[in-house]
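Protocol step 4 of 5: obtain the predicted structure for the target chain.
Materials: sequence only (see below). No template structures provided, no constraints applied. The aim of this step is simply to have a reference model before the mutagenesis design in step 5. Sequence pasted as it appears in the construct record:
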Amino acid sequence: MSDEMKWIAERTKTFDSSGIRKVFDLASKMENPINLSIGQPDFDVPQPVKDACIEAIQNGKNGYALTQGMPVLRDKLQAEVDAEYGHDDRSLFVCSGTSGGLFLTMLSLINPGDEVIIFDPYFVMYDSLVKLVGGKPVVLNTYPSFQIDPDQVAAAITPKTKLILLNSPANPTGVVASEEAMKALADLAAKHGIALLSDEIYRRFCYDDSFVSPAKFNPDTIVIDGFSKSHAMTGWRLGMVHGPQAIIDTMLKLQQYTFVCAPQPAQWAGAAAMDFDVQPYVDSYSDKRDMLIDGIQDLYDVTVPGGAFYVFPKSPRGSGTEFVTRAIENNLLIIPGGIFSQHDTHFRISYAADDATIQKGIEVLRALALNH
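Step 4 output (structure tokens):
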């Protein structure tokens, strides 16, 4: 073994590189693929938001931001959160994307050996982040409905359980947790003194029912949100975390020594983004969902998603990886479900694409299902 390999920290060996990154690398080598793989809106950042960022840059708003966020954005976000929840002890800070918020939450709460309950399928980062900070992921199977079963959660709680992590609407399934499940989960966390972390980055993308946060029922819930999906600002790295003051203060202390701050020009843009109505985009994605579901549900075992912009069908034969390999051979780029799961039975489609691309994807998917 080379000296360089000996230098690498053991914590980095508990997980592999993101499988999604590997798919993106593959996509870069394909010529004009039908790309239904990327979890990024296909609309551009709204023009008023761009203008606000450009104005901030031109006006010299380019230095370090306050660790907790610039008042132009943070105060606006805090007022919105206060109006929604009315909790006496709910503070907020601006982070470097929701990924930054997730990492800081894990660093703040998880000690080596602590158990963290996550739901399978899960966002690729969850399992790895828990391991990175020395925690133990306790993975609960939600197949085939992808709904949270509070009784299953209750049975999984041990004296070592420190945190329950949920994502609704969910990536990769698009499933929205029911209000009953949210309340039951919130009550369980409160009863057992367990932290509850709700990743709500897709909360604006709910098509059939109104979004419900577990923070509605449990005031100690930690919530992560951001602008990446709702305003197509994925590259701007602008998120937020709100929760009990003591936890937020701890996360701010850690942010000082890690991310330092979220980019200042993006925060001025975020303040403008809060005044921009994204409902037309949401309505458009609801139509895209219907187009995709109508195009494949007669040939695939698929749960109709209530939110986000993903569909998670079961492979009609063979593993999810085998099916995705065949899809790629037919110039369709989708993602094997094993990247998000301990099971390799499904695959993820992102309908964050123009209608023509979705239609081409439907044609390939139908041909793959029909051609044995």
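Step 4 remarks: The radius of gyration is 21 Å. The mean pLDDT is 94.
Proceed to step 5.
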